[in-house]
Amino acid sequence: MDSGESEFKLIKAAWLIDGNGGPPLERGAILLEGDKIKDVGSEEAVVPPEGARTQEFVYNEQTVLPGLVDCHVHLIGFGDGRFGDELHTLPDEVLTLQAASNARAHLYSGVTTVRDCGAKNRTTFMLREAVEMGITKAPRLLLSGRPVAIVGGHLSYFGVEATGVDECRAAVRQLVKEGADFIKITATGGSTRTSVPMRPSFNPDELTAICEEAHKFGKHAAAHCVSSQGIINAVEAGIDTVIHGYHRNEDGAYEYRPEITESIVDRGVYVNPTLGQAQIRMEALESKLESKSLSESEQAELEFQRASHEDRLDCVARMLADGVRIACGSDSAWSSYPMGDFQTEIEAQVGAGMSPMEAIVAATRDSARSCWADDQVGTLAEGKQADVLVVKGNPSKNISALRNVVDVFQAGARVDRNDLL
């Protein structure tokens, strides 16, 4: 600012979605003052102070809504199918550069806040320092740093292996010291080759120690759980967000268990089901099948992915019906899911039974709530950060309209989406 006056931006659009789930407001407007939202309402009601310097943006046949909040990313991933076992062999410097590229892709696609759920060493903390120095652009970063794992467990190669209650508490304290915004726990095995996917990893007392220590420092905890017993252990330990959260027995068989869902609902735990990643892999195999034949192993994988996809959709639909609060997180750029396409995850939740508006709420307000960031982001409301997405069309009618990004505002500043530096 070149004087003592405030600078305002007035954004007008055909439709305004505030992120709370109500019907879009026709001919809505948002007034931004600096990096905060000053007012939200109808075009007639929202006006800048008399005499104030105001830049006006008018979006006809377009919708304004909160900047998207992806509550589950891995910024150092490549989204090219490689396993984390391979990813961690790359130098930290390369991974930090990849994280910067991924962050920019997500921001330009309309995601203004991300929660990174596990990275190697201090790579994402280095990214945050670079953003704060103005070297690169990124969404608002909520970082776990290294995930907490058992010896040889899922993501253990990223840097924290803990055994016993004392080591678990010490791991949390170390991560808080390093600047972690929350604690990521791998409560079961996963794609890590030395882990056992369907079995719990930490013992219940260890999980409880991690959650208690995180909460003591005012941090929340999110747990990777791909089996029913893993979910049970995490919820009883005091977890805040269950990631994946599919009801699978130790042998991998799907069996929906209402009593697990009841416990999740009673304790107010969020579930981040990550439908898009496997869907992208399944669609890639189906596309290859149309153009040429699959190998025997690929055909077997496709059949497995199809069956698993139906199980996941059923599980999410039943959790929704039973009152589970769903938060939207993509899990990109893990495995075959590149960043810059959070929309695939949002569309997948519609495929699981959400209405378009419910999916928007999951990807804005409820995702922010699961990240303990809803006091700052996730809805368009006075006093919140001025993170705003503008898309062509009305996504409450057609969720694919979220792909038609027109403009992104972060902390009140219009993002130059053509800037690749």
Strand segment count: 17
Largest sheet, in brief, is: 7 strands, mixed
Task: Choose one word for the global shape.
Answer: globular
Low-confidence runs = 1-5
Listing every helix as H and every strand as E from the N terminus to the C terminus, the arrangement reads EEEEEHHEHEEEHEHEHEHEHHEHHHEEE
Number of helices: 12
* Fraction of helical residues: 25-40%
Distance between the termini: 25 Å
Radius of gyration, in Å, reads 21 Å
Helix and strand content put the structural class at: alpha/beta
Mean pLDDT: 95
Beta content: 15-25%
Going across the major beta sheet, what is the strand order? 3-2-1-4-15-16-17
Blueprint of the fold:
Blueprint: E1 7-16, E2 25-33, E3 36-42, E4 53-66, E5 68-73, H1 84-87, H2 92-108, E6 111-116, H3 123-132, E7 140-143, E8 148-149, E9 160-161, H4 164-178, E10 182-186, H5 204-216, E11 220-225, H6 228-237, E12 241-244, H7 258-266, E13 270-272, H8 276-291, H9 296-321, E14 325-326, H10 342-351, H11 356-362, H12 365-370, E15 388-392, E16 405-410, E17 413-414
Parallel strand pairs: 1-4, 5-6, 6-7, 8-9, 10-11, 11-12, 12-13, 13-14
Antiparallel strand pairs: 1-2, 2-3, 4-15, 15-16, 16-17
Helix pairs in contact: 2-3, 4-5, 5-6, 8-9, 8-10, 10-11
